[in-house]
Amino acid sequence: MRKRENLRVLSRLMSVLLVFSLLSGLCVQAAAQSPEEDGAGSRSVSLLQAPEAKAGAQADKNILAYALREAKKVVDSGQLDRLASNAPAGLKERFEAAVAAADTVYQNDDATNEEIQTAYKELQDVMWQLSYVMADKTALQDAVDHAKAIDLSGYTAESVSAFQEALAAAEALLEGDLSIGQQPQIDAAIKALETAESQLATHPPVTPSTPSGSGSSGSKPSKPEPPEEPGEDDGKEPNPPVKYEDVSSDAWYAEGVEYVSSLGIMNGTGSEQFSPSATTSRAMIWTMLYRLAGEPEQDGDSSVWYGKAMSWSQENGISDGSNPGSAITREQLAVTLYRYAGAEKTDIDLSAYSDSAEISAWAQDGMMWAVKTGLINGKGNGILDPKGTATRAEAATIFMRFMQNLQDSKEAIG
Questions:
Q1: Which helix H or strand E contains 17, and what residues bound it?
Q2: Whole-angstrom Cα distance, residue 124 to residue 60?
Q3: How many helices (H) and strands (E) does the chain have?
Q4: Which of 62, 140, 231, 395 has the most Cβ atoms closer than 10 angstroms to its Cβ?
Q5: How far is CA 220 from CA 213, 282, 339, 384, in A?
């Protein structure tokens, strides 16, 4: 409830500022259209240069009156304290001083245009700054710290995996700078963590099967085998379709989300939530590939949820294991999959994309391969956005294409 109130205040502040700008423009235009004869022809009268122009002063006071009414609503309702709780030091005091100064000027019948405009501009400036206060991530940091302190031994692999993905999504949010308008994302991440924790199942952990493939020996998987998908004759029951409240059936990523979820490559971030717009961390991609390889026996740092996946990725030349909590970029994702697949180098012309020159030199081979194989497409307007971060929706769709390509290759060979 508190966050929704903050957002309503933010919306009102932005609306007020827009009205301020429009009213200010109209007043300046009106003043510019009011000629004053001086014997040499008509000329425009500047509001700031003509303090004796009472009509102009009254127009400016109308703007100031509106600003004061809206600003005082923020103060009187107590919303200022909430909005300023994460603001730079002194912003709240500056806001209150601007309101007091503007009120003094408004009450002064002899106030000049210059005094009115100065008071108005100071109030406008401080309201703009207040509207861009950064979101308060304190609660999210507390939730992450609490989650990382939980001993996950003794819980089922499935519930632990869901918990770890919710934690990874929350950590990815902590890495970025979010404005107060993005507070719902933080609230959703906290809720997802709480839900995932409440759903930790206290059954003996499920031991994953270990298929042939890369393990802790350090050999690089040149042509990894995709996991077997449930079929009619293999005796396995297919996983039921996975549905999430925040994934519409007609969303462009719906098929990818259902595909990777049903195969256990990705899990939701909470009760019936997938968080498609959340960023995907590098650690999450390592974990997804580790699952794709069948979670082979692997030593790793047991103090972090991605420890085994990180060590496995390093030993197999898939990643250097750096910056696990950072959001993965599209070019980093392409290179990671390229290394996992052990794909042959390809050479295609990417100049049709206006931002192809932004692809890092080390990512050229991976991006060309990813585009050629259909894993990564343009994002519209002829751009690839190689430095852009990959959302969970994008990661799910790219992994679906990647796994289907691996399956097609296997069938073609076999």
A1: helix 2-32
A2: 13
A3: 14, 0
A4: 395
A5: 9, 19, 9, 29
Distance CA 133, CA 127 (A): 10
Q: Tell me the C-alpha distance between 127 and 66, whole Å.
A: 13
Contact 312, 293 (CB under 8 A): yes
Show the CA angle centred on residue 5, arms to residues 95 and 173, nearest 5°.
90
Residue type, 108: N
Asked if residues 310 and 334 have their Cβ atoms less than 8 Å apart, the reply is no
* Structure-block tokens of residue 77: 């309702």
Can you tell me which residue has the tokens 């449930």? 230
User: Residue 166 gets which letter from DSSP?
Assistant: H
Q: Please give the structure tokens belonging to residue 83.
A: 């909005």
d(CA 22, CA 16): 10
Which pair of tokens denotes residue 203? 């059954």
Is the Cβ–Cβ distance between 309 and 289 less than 8 Å?
Answer: yes
Q: How many residues in total does the chain contain?
A: 414
Token pair listed for 47: 């509001």
Which residue has tokens 């991609």? 285
Query: Which residues does 32 contact at the CB level (< 8 Å), separation at least 6?
Result: 44, 45
pLDDT tens digits, one per residue of 278-330: 889 999 999 999 999 999 999 998 888 899 999 999 999 999 998 888 889 99
Q: Which two tokens stand for residue 150?
A: 């939980």
Query: Could you read off the pLDDT of 108-167 as tens digits, one per residue?
Result: 988 888 888 888 888 888 777 766 555 567 778 888 888 887 767 556 777 778 888 888
How many angstroms separate the CA atoms of 365 and 345, rounded?
6
Per-residue tokens: 252: 């462009």
Cα–Cα distances in Å, from 262 out to 5, 161, 284, 366?
38, 14, 17, 27
Instruction: Output the pTM of the full model.
Output: 0.50
Helix, strand or coil, per DSSP, at residue 289: helix
